[in-house]
Amino acid sequence: MLRLFVRLRYELFMIDIFVLSLAVHKADLRKLRSVDKKDLDTNPLTNSVEFIWSTTTVAVGDTAVLHCSFDAIFQQLRNGNIDWSKETSRDGDPDGSGGVSIASGKRVTVEDSRFRVFRPHNSALSVLIIRRSKKKDAGIYRCNLSGSSTRHKYMILNVTESKIEAQTSPATMRAKIGNDVTLWCNATGYPKPIVYWTRDDRSRQLPDGTYQFWGNGLQVRSASESDTGVYTCYLDNFVQPIVTYKFSLMVEDNPWSLDGYKMRFDSKQWYAHDRTEPKPVKTKSYLLMCEARGASKPQPLIRWYKDGQPIRNNKHFYIISDSPESKSNRASSTLVIMNFLLRFQGNYTCVASNVFRMKKLTFYVRGVESEGQETTPKDLTVKKKEKDRGAAASSHLTRDFNAIPTTDVQQ
After folding, report:
1. Which of 38, 70, 82, 271 would bridge 126 by S-S if both were Cys, CB 3.0 to 4.6 A apart?
2. Average pLDDT over the chain, rounded to whole?
3. Is the pLDDT of residue 304 over 70?
4. Closest alpha carbon to 104 in 71, 145, 75, 76
5. Which strand (E) or helix (H) includes residue 24?
């Protein structure tokens, strides 16, 4: 749709030709008035192929526009026409044939629908228009007043191959969050290409708040997570097919670490998560804490799992999250296991993540029945048997141990 809109504007340039041509006509008048009117018919400067009035260069497939104007003092302009022809050689019609006739007045004489003539009413101006130019159209063109062999002008038309070239930034770029970064497409070629940008996901805005940006460089100021994505730059000269380049931008947060600690109800300090002590005591509280450190943006969110199942607040578990504004480089979460029971033994994992990365730590928790004495489910069953509490008591303990939830840690 965008290219169609620009193409329509480009095709309607004929509306502006008259205004532009008048300006050219005035410039021609200044040139002609610098020559003595008595010498116009014999002046070699104005009547030789060596005198090239203008040079125009277009790309293959583009539209060529040649302007020709004369001073309105010429008698022929009252009733005459301005004719166009293409010279057969640079020496200017050596065989006297006048070259190849293209147009006479407003009438195109060559059998080629690409040629048109624009002639404003009551003016000394004629414009030759060649659409979809070809290499064979290149050469020397002559415009002259009908019936005059001396009052004419020569113009050179160059038709070149259209091309688009570009120097670009790397296809994959990374930027720290909060920093500035620029994606660029420096385009060259003929006709000179225009450059515009969009996001690969057209529903997302560009960093400047628009959905389309025109220019060689797309600047991202104070990069944020929302700027991560794929950007496309388009190069269009309205002759060649559109050339596109894609760029992947990854906005990364600052590095951060995840540490784990544990503490028993009667401890006076925190212990590293991989230490064997302190062990929990039955029916007493036991605390597990994970702390993310670093200037991460956004702050990581910490979640807890037991044996792979998510933990929620209930009468047995309580989660305390802490992200104080005074410590913007820290975020912590503490899992409190209240009234520790044997069935709460297991692997507890804290997972810290933001939009950029995820980290996790696992606590291997095993309980003791009394302080200083470790108890496993097997040892517990033997002790129950030694105290002669029978198979019923053993069965009861087995049921307690098998009460670990399989769908969610919620008691």
Report:
1. 82
2. 76
3. yes
4. 145
5. helix 14-33
Confidence check: pLDDT of 272 > 90: yes
212-263 pLDDT, tens digit per residue, is 999 999 999 999 888 989 999 999 988 778 999 999 998 887 788 999 999 9
Tokens 């087995």 appear where?
398
- Among 386, 363, 206, CA closest to 270: 363
* CB within 8 Å of 115: residues ≥ 6 apart: 102, 103, 108, 128, 129, 130, 131
CA torsion sign for 72, 75, 77, 79 is positive
**In this predicted structure, what is the pLDDT of residue 114?**
93
Residue 88 to residues 113, 125, 255, 303, Cα–Cα distance (Å): 21, 24, 73, 84
Quote the Cα angle for 133-136-139, to 5°: 95
Residue 140 token pair: 């020397």
Q: Which of 342, 346, 341, 351 is nearest to 363 (CA)?
A: 346
Phi, psi dihedrals of residue 266, rounded to the nearest 5°: -105, 10
Q: What is the 3-state secondary structure (H, E, C) of 235-284?
A: EECCCCCCEEEEEEEEEECCCCEEEEEEEECCCCCCEECCCCCCCCECCC
Question: Using one digit for the tens of pLDDT, what is the confidence trace for 150-201?
Answer: 678 889 998 888 788 889 999 999 888 888 999 999 998 877 899 999 998 8
CA-CA-CA-CA torsion sign (127, 132, 136, 139): positive
Give 348: exposed, middle or buried? Use CB within 10 Å, 0-12, 13-18, 19+. Answer: buried
Cβ neighbours of residue 86 closer than 8 Å, sequence gap 6 or more: 99, 100, 102, 139, 140, 141, 142
Q: Find the helix or strand (DSSP H, E) in which 183 lies.
A: strand 181-190
The single residue listed with the structure tokens 């259209």 is 162
pTM score, two decimals? 0.47
Residue found under tokens 């008691």? 411
Q: Residue 396: name the closest of 338, 345, 343, 344 by CA.
A: 343
